[in-house]
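Write out this protein's structure.
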Amino acid sequence: MTRSKAYLTLLAVLLCLWQVAAAQDLASFEKRVHVKTLPNGLTVLLLQRPQAPVFSFYTVVDAGGAQDPLGKTGLAHMMEHMAFKGTENIGTTDAAAEKIALAKVEVAYAAYDRENQRQVGRDPSKVAELKAAWEKARAEADQFVIKNEFGEIVERNGGVGLNASTALDSTQYYYSLPANRLELWAYLESERFLNPVLREFYKERDVVMEERRMRTDSSPIGRLIEQFLSVAYDGSPYHRPDVGYASDLRHFSASDAERFFRTYYVPSNTIIALVGDLDPEPTFATVERYFGRIPSGPKPEEYVTEQTPQTAERTVVLKDPSQPFYIEGYQRPNYRDKDNEVYAVISSVLSDGRTSRLYRGLVRDKKIAVAAAGFSGFPGDKYRNLYAIYAVPSRGHNGAEMASAIHEIIAKLKSDGLTPEELKMVKTRSRASLLRGLANNQGLAGSLANNQLRHGDWREMFRRLDRIDAVTNDDVKRVANQIFVETNRTVGITENQNAAKNANKGGK
């Protein structure tokens, strides 16, 4: 390609990006975003985007693992799994008979679990007898199940990306459909919140248990992170894993899940965002016709036990014959803090790309790590949380070297802050990141819903850029000096004892 052609190509790309940016500012969005709160308290956002005859939705429930009842961790995650099992009208051959059968399952399970959990006078033969009765009741209920009917209906009608996720702060549901399937979507999704049926609950509980084994019990990094968070947090619910503790997963029931659902899956605790080729007036009429059927309920109280401010360094070391790993975290306020965007600027300069300070310092220059990055809001940001930094040591290196190199970078950040070029680059990168997030319907629906939920106004997705633009180098140094101190630090290390022994032998 000649230099002139390359120049023209670059010019065309820049012009295209400029046109996209011009159409993606707050003023243009305010003309196209419509917000409606139904009489039952459900808030629905609609962004009309007629580029293609499709739409995406994103439903966020303001409840996650942090809302799990004591002794029943994993319930929020379990509800996410159960949301795909169908309703009274989907997934069953006989709703009335199935309801009776499922009630018998719960009675049998309660009797079995009560005897099985008995600390004194537990009778193994009675436990076995009650377990057999419970399993028989489950088998009788399972005969009414039409497996995967909910998902198959979505896929038959052109749906893609059917999925959900559970975090400690919230639970999300999403997929995309052709625009002419709006009414089908409204029926399916409102049914999930109106008439969920917790069929195959205990079978799915076993699936979640297996997920825990894969994510945590069989993963050295997973085990370290779970222990790291349990040490970093005390009163806060962030010290509990969102997947749940194994003993809780073996214990909670469908009745427990039903109570969780009735408490948190209420319209006033839910936000839905729709983005695509949809006309506002008929769309809202359809939404109200179906979702308006859901009974209203009070928004659950927000109170959780507050995290105790840290006054001494905390450390957890996991001895494991696996890849060494290093992580450290520093307590910081929640996302509503006035300095929230300062942490975002620090994250960007420490971690974004191969020019970031952590990558250059540990991976490229010193070659002591194969990966290194930092991020804010761990493991959630709704409550007081951690600014975390991790590093994966390269062969022959260890956690102590990671700590030394990381603290050297932090010390320079505290004393000098950022260069003018770095600060400018971070602000440009933040704007580009927002534009990329607006490029597809699904990502945009998620941004609208989450900002409406967390800030009460979807416009915060744009206003955040103004706050980032206002961050100064003095702000960076001030915040860095406030939180990056030893007494505010929790450290987690995986040590490979075999590797250490081999290294010592080699040294001799």
